[in-house]
Write a structure and sequence with these properties.
Pfam family, one: LRR_At1g61320_AtMIF1
Largest sheet: 13 strands, parallel
Number of strands: 15
Number of helices: 8
Structural class: alpha/beta
Strand content: 15-25%
CATH topology of the largest domain: Leucine-rich repeat, LRR (right-handed beta-alpha superhelix)
Organism: Digitaria exilis
InterPro entries: At1g61320/At1g61330-like, LRR_At1g61320_AtMIF1, LRR_dom_sf
Helix content: 25-40%
Protein name: At1g61320/AtMIF1 LRR domain-containing protein
CATH class of the largest domain: Alpha Beta
Radius of gyration: 24 Å
Length: about 350
């Protein structure tokens, strides 16, 4: 049930304070041709509404959602503190105006969270953070954090089923260590990726930093990068990849080596049936990457190459496809489809 600004009857005043699901949006106050002065008035009215809701709500709160396009930095910490006293299970915060909102430590004290969606925020874990023990879904978009904070946040949630990390800054080495994750979607700016998620079934990976990602250091034929990224994904069924790829020499087919140059076991993606590659350009690094996946996936049914880049010539596509078709495949039934 959405809480909206209306002239409340006395009966409604008693009812809304006990509704379990609250949705607040400042679009109620917005007008298309609003002036700066009216913008300020609209924001002020929305602040009053949110304060009233958080102060007067008396019943148990299951879901709290807030959307806003004005600047609420000066009251944000107060709102989150009041919200933390209600102990909701489901929180969605989308406040898109101005710089990122620093998430107050009070949010990390909400012990019964099962769903958390934050947009346009800065995440810094408090020193005494003990984790969200019941959290199942974590979605972060347009956020900033650090290697250690995002890693600790995820690893401190033992029941996570689904994680989305999109459009982030400040993270160089993205480390995902979670035994329970089944769905993982990553789209952002980083240099290195390490995944230990043995129950992962679906992974979407888009690599935004082309230059940085192609400069992954290589020793021997391959470092722990591929081992850590794919070696633990023993249950993955669907893999969707787009963006940029490590440089070609990172994918030599002589073997894969760990930090001390000792040969390690080639990853086997025994349950992988579907691979989707987006933004294909026909580059050697893309072809080499796909060639490795073909050799690792004995149950593969389809490899789809989609959204071929507009500046890619027909000649390059022909040559790259010819190379790809020549690679040995672990699966005798795998089809390669260009769309």
């Amino acid at each position: 049930m959405a809480v909206r600004t209306t002239v409340l009857s006395s009966a409604w005043r008693n009812v809304w304070t006990a509704v379990p699901d609250i949705f607040l949006c400042d679009c109620t106050f917005c007008s298309c041709n609003a002036s700066t002065k009216s913008d300020s008035s609209e924001a002020s009215k929305f602040v009053t509404l949110v304060d009233m809701v958080l102060s007067l709500h008396k019943g148990p709160l299951d879901t709290f959602t807030i959307h806003g396009t004005h600047n609420y930095h000066d009251v944000f910490a107060r709102w989150i503190y009041k919200l933390s006293t209600k102990g909701p299970e489901d929180i969605t915060i989308k406040l898109t105006s101005g710089p990122q909102y620093k998430i107050p430590s009070s949010l990390f004290s909400i012990s019964h969270l099962s769903f958390l969606y934050l947009k346009n925020c800065s995440i810094s874990l408090p020193k005494k953070f003990e984790g969200f023990k019941l959290l199942k879904v974590l979605k972060l978009k347009a956020f900033s954090s650090t290697d250690s904070d995002i890693s600790n946040l995820i690893s401190s949630c033992p029941h996570l089923d689904e994680v989305h990390l999109r459009y982030f800054k400040g993270i160089n080495c993205l480390s995902i260590q979670a035994q329970s994750i089944q769905i993982l979607k990553i789209e952002g700016d980083f240099k290195d990726l390490r995944i230990d998620a043995p129950n992962l079934v679906i992974m979407y990976l888009r690599l935004d930093r082309v230059e940085g990602y192609q400069s992954v250091p290589v020793q021997g034929d391959m470092k722990s990068y591929l081992k850590q990224t794919f070696g633990s994904l023993t249950r993955i069924v669907s893999l969707n990849v787009g963006g940029s790829y490590p440089r070609p020499e990172a994918f030599t087919r002589k073997g894969i080596w760990d930090q001390d140059e000792t040969e390690i076991q080639t990853p086997k993606l025994d349950h992988l049936t579907m691979i989707t590659l987006n933004d294909f350009r026909g580059l050697d690094c893309e072809v080499a990457f796909l060639g490795l996946l073909l050799s690792w996936a004995p149950a593969l049914e389809e490899m789809k190459i989609k959204n071929i880049a507009e500046d890619t010539t027909d000649e390059r596509i022909f040559k790259s496809t010819k190379k790809l078709l020549a690679f040995p495949r672990a699966s005798t039934t795998a089809k390669i489809i260009l769309t």
